[in-house]
Amino acid sequence: MLTVGLFPNLKKTRIDTVVSWLVQHFQERKVRVLLPEEAARELNFPELAADMEQLTDQIQLAVTLGGDGTLINAAREVAPAGIPVCGVNMGQLGYLTEIELPDLAPAVDKLIRGEYSIEERLMLDAFILRGDEELFVSSALNDVVVTKGGLSRLIRLKLFIDDELAANYPADGVIVATSTGSTGYSLSAGGPIINPKLKVIVLTPICPHSLQARSLLVSEKEEIKITMNATHDDIVLTVDGQTLQALQPDDIVIVRRATFRARFARFAGRSFAHALRTKLWRDEDDEAR
């Protein structure tokens, strides 16, 4: 029997209605449904509650209900177990999600029948080297960011690729992004858009105080090391815009390829070009129509 995990964003409007419909739709088709414990409690489905260990052990497919952030959160949880994830867009942009609400019923039936392909996405692991100890922070689907705090002055960054110095510049910080994350914070900081089929890492400085500082693409096999020199200790490390870790001036941040991939369930006809055209840039003719 197929077992599906539903990962809803409880803050979304009408989330209770959509989840109730999905649970009924799946169960009518003999699909077992599980929900994270908090969601099951809030949405009044206590019989479907499961902790994260049970979810990653028992489900064969994760379905998220929300926006890109909801999908990223779920993907980080289930990726180590090799579980594919499919997002239902209940947000604004929904660049990473696969299903729009008007198409929910036929899309869910495709998922049940297995009529989808798997697209693997590079993930990163972030570590802090503090003295002789290497501290694991988190895995990332989008990006790992070293940045100054809200009221602090700039920091001087040294960027090493496989232990060889590659850049040395003053800036507000640096973004280490996957191709998936190239359309997020890195893009807003001036980085390039990268096809997710390319398993590369893009390094983008944040507000660099240098005309020569530009984004840099490196192989997924290369290890990134970042050292910081600042007159303050208000420096933070964020992972996918969510995990926050305070850094000390002598800390070293290390980013390397994770040992597992995120796996996205994709339907035929929804290509990278299609996502660009319909999500990121609509031309004037599209807007007029």
Separate helix tally: 8
Q: Biggest β-sheet, characterized? A: 6 strands, parallel
* C-alpha termini separation: 44 Å
CATH topology of the largest domain: Rossmann fold
Count structural domains.
2
Strand order of the largest sheet: 3-2-1-4-5-6
Order of helix and strand elements from N to C terminus = EHEHEHEHEEHEEEEEEEHEEEEEEEHH
Query: How many beta-strand runs?
Result: 20
User: Briefly, what CATH class of the largest domain?
Assistant: Alpha Beta
Report Rg.
20 Å
**Strand portion, in percent?**
35-45%
How does CATH name the architecture of the largest domain? 3-Layer(aba) Sandwich
Would you identify the regions where 5 or more consecutive residues have pLDDT less than 50? 283-289
How does the helix and strand content classify structurally? alpha+beta
Overall description:
The structure is a single chain. This protein has 289 residues and is of the alpha+beta class. It has 2 domains: 3-121 and 261-288, Probable inorganic polyphosphate/atp-NAD kinase, domain 1 (Rossmann fold), CATH 3.40.50; 124-257, Tumour Suppressor Smad4, CATH 2.60.200. 23% of the residues lie in helices and 38% in strands. It is built from 8 helices and 20 strands. It has helices spanning 15-28, 37-42, 52-58, 68-78, 104-113, 185-188, 272-280, 284-288; strands at 3-8, 32-36, 49-50, 61-66, 85-89, 99-100, 117-121, 124-130, 133-140, 143-148, 155-161, 164-171, 173-178, 200-206, 216-219, 224-229, 235-239, 243-247, 252-257, 262-266. The protein has a 6-stranded parallel beta sheet with strand order 3-2-1-4-5-6, sandwiched between helices. It has a 6-stranded antiparallel beta sheet with strand order 9-8-19-16-11-12, with no helix packed on it. Strand 8 and strand 9 form a beta hairpin. The longest helix has 14 residues, at 15-28.
